[in-house]
Amino acid sequence: MRFIGSKTLLLDQIKHVIDEKAPGAESFCDIFSGTAAVARYFKQWYQVCSNDLLYFSYVLQRATVENDSVPEFARLQDETGITDPVDFFNGREKKDLEELPKERRFFQNTYAPTGGRMYLNDENALRIDFARCTVEDWKAAGLLSEDEYYYLVACIVEGIPFVSNTSGTYGAFHKAWERRSYKRYELYRLAVTHNGKQNRSFNENGVDLLTRLKGDILYIDPPYNARQYLSNYHVLETAARYDYPMVRGVTGQRPDEGQKSEFCMKNKVVPAFEELLKNAQFKHIILSYSTDGLMTVDEIEKAMKKHGKPETFQIYEIPYRRYKSRKVKETERLRELLFYMEKQVPPCT
Question: Does the keyword S-adenosyl-L-methionine apply (predicted)?
Fold first, then answer.
């Protein structure tokens, strides 16, 4: 999934730091999980907990972190004969979609030309509506377990960026159709790593949540800039919730009460970071941050040395071309950094 600050290209570097600093660790916490790419990756080796304030992120986590295998959909198969719901949705013809009542077509009526916007073409928006409404109907009828429900919603959400008429975020849509927007929408089948451990996912304020968690490794990848993530990903949030929100403005933004992060506020980010570090009951703490973020390197160093063992503080600079997929000029000074510190905490029991 295209996502601001996605760490897919940094996974090897993060693992290198962990292997060097925490060779005996057994648990890993991704407190700002986003697409859950980092949590999924480290699920290969650790008991994982993940969290994010955005619900669509929680859905992705619930499907791939907390689930320990791809669900079997036994009740759905027994009652409907559908053996593979992902194939079922991806195989629907347009005439099947038209059976959905117009008043239930929120995506077509809101984010497509039918609703005066161009995030998706009309047929793809209707495909999303059909899948989301059907999944809600199956759940209401008792045909899906919680694991199965979240897995299917996650597959629906993951498929949207492949056909979205945007530059990667949903703060605005293009006024002309991009090539990808002509593709037919399909659910994206998600793989689930089995590790046999009690993995957990959360949908909470990470600073508050840390007062109730403890473990070995805490990975912190907070927002870097002043743009609230809900504004950038409101379409995916609505796909996950499917709650028929009262949208506003040309871009169709959804209400954002209770979902604003202090890490996106210049006057609040440092106190929020300090509170997070104070609450953290983890021995090994790794922060991923960019030199164009709201916090300066000096502010980060001061906070981490204050709340951890100062002599353990270390900065790792990630080569730019390892992080960005596009070519850049040598004069562009943007750098991605990993900060490490060890904290004195009671041993996990």
Answer: yes
> Do residues 327 and 207 share a domain?
yes
- 237 touches 245 (CB < 8 A): no
Asked if the structure places residue 60 within a domain, the reply is no
Each residue of 16-72: pLDDT tens digit? 999 999 999 999 999 999 999 999 999 999 999 999 999 999 999 999 999 999 999
pTM of the model: 0.92
Q: Is residue 206 part of a domain?
A: yes
For the chain, how many helices (H) and strands (E)? 15, 7
Beta bridge partners of 220: 287
Alpha helices in the chain, H assignment, sequence order? 11-21, 37-42, 55-61, 74-80, 85-90, 94-97, 106-111, 122-140, 146-159, 206-209, 229-232, 234-241, 269-279, 297-307, 320-323
In terms of Cα–Cα distance, which of 254, 257, 268 is closest to 226?
A: 268
In whole angstroms, give the CA distance from residue 274 to residue 91: 50
Q: How many C-beta atoms lie closer than 10 Å to residue 153's C-beta? A: 27
**Pair 341, 285: CB distance under 8 Å:** yes
Query: For residue 89, is it within any domain?
Result: yes
Give the C-alpha separation, 291 to 343, whole Å.
24
